[in-house]
Amino acid sequence: xxxxxxxxxxxxxxxxxxxxxxxxxxxxxxxxxxxxxxxxxxxxxxxxxxxxxxxxxxxxxxxxxxxxxxxxxxxxxxxxxxxxxxxxxxxxxxxxxxxxxxxxxxxxxxxxxxxxxxxxxxxxxxxxxxxxxxxxxxxxxxxxxxxxxxxxxxxxxxxxxxxxxxxxxxxxxxxxxxxxxxxxxxxxxxxxxxxxxxxxxxxxxxxxxxxxxxxxxxxxxxxxxxxxxxxxxxxxxxxxxxxxxxxxxxxxxxxxxxxxxxxxxxxxxxxxxxxxxxxxxxxxxxxxxxxxxxxxxxxxxxxxxxxxxxxxxxxxxxxxxxxxxxxxxxxxxxxxxxxxxxxxxxxxxxxxxxxxxxxxxxxxxxxxxxxxxxxxxxxxxxxxxxxxxxxxxxxxxxxxxxxxxxxxxxxxxxxxxxxxxxxxxxxxxxxxxxxxxxxxxxxxxxxxxxxxxxxxxxxx
Length: 460
Ligand code: ADP
Ligand code: ASP
Ligand code: MG
Hints:
The chain is built from 15 helices and 16 strands. By secondary structure, it is α/β, with parallel strands linked by helices. The chain has two domains: 220 residues, Carbamate kinase (3-Layer(aba) Sandwich), CATH 3.40.1160.10; 147 residues, VC0802-like. Strands 3-4-2-1-7-9-10-8 form an eight-stranded mixed sheet. A six-stranded antiparallel sheet has the order 12-13-11-14-16-15. Strands 5-6 form a two-stranded antiparallel ribbon. Helix 1 packs across helix 3. It is globular. The chain starts with a strand and ends in a 5-residue tail after the last helix. The model has no long low-confidence stretch (mean pLDDT 94). The site of magnesium ion has 3 residues, from loops.
């Protein structure tokens, strides 16, 4: 069971989580909990690290640390009843706060923030949370112990900021956790692992979902449950469309498409370990535990629901590469893609018309400058005449395995957008036919989501 940042946002919520764990444990389940950082803490760690590496302001570190300490102390006082457990949690927090302050102060003086040090610093959110959750569970009379992802057996490569688990992790997790779960509820930090040298790595933002799936696969769990602040996976982001509905059942593939296409409800790699080990994943609402939520399974519910959900990716940019010299010029696409790969640019969407005179790509906005430089550096004017770009765009994706082989879905998508007066800038549909995605200007994005949500009666 993984609990997200909103689920463990403060002492009351941590206590509620501990009560849920106690209930499921006493019902006869063997459980492992994975915890995120207290809501907002990871964002805070990223921003203080960036700020002080530029400003060198040690006073800012001191202020930040004082707030962070207070937040966790407050949580301890509410979430943990017994004095001895409280002081054990305080000791754990104090020593971590000390280490973190030293690291941030070091960054002030160095004026440099490497990917490795960002991982180290951002790992503290979860490392401060786990001892509190564990203390809270213990104070309800259930034996528990806190572990870091690395201690629990999550071993990764050293791709800081976006580390991948190594295959040996699964055995390692089994060996470390399986003997324990008969007696205790282990509480494992989400988001973080360690590389083969024991250096802390992170699995990418929202990585606790992925941690839970890796651990669930490692111990051969019957189910992996992700507890969040929403009613499961919904037909679209309920923050954009309040009428969004919970999807009772969805296939692995659809859930993957949704998470790749920006539905922030799941870390994009969450489903991979679950698929490999054939473990169903459930997404539930921490604050409405009796509600079923969403079950993610192998089978696809075709026909009934042609379109399952609509999703939005923002913070992307569109690049349009054009030039008469591209027509019939073999290897242009290969050169574009290798230049971008070498520059570390992740491509989200691709489209090339059969005239071959231009190619459009969508990439994450933060990579725009390096992407444009890489393409300009690769070609001379005889092939590529122009590299234009646009930052004010969003990708909208319509997802559903039931679209496969059903005529008229894209007609319906684009017709309804046409009636709503929304201009489509670029279109792409992979031949899996599990999603149709397209680019609109940022100003039209929310309208497009609402229009499609209604058109496919996802609000009913
Ligand atoms: P966690 O507690 O695991 O971090 P989040 O707080 O990230 O979980 O909860 C999921 C978030 O994803 C919600 O804030 C919600 O607005 C957003 N979201 C985007 N698309 C969807 C979707 N299709 N279904 C559910 N939530 C979605
Ligand atoms: N705390 C991390 C983040 O905010 C990981 C997570 O919550 O899943 O990205
Ligand atoms: Mg999240």
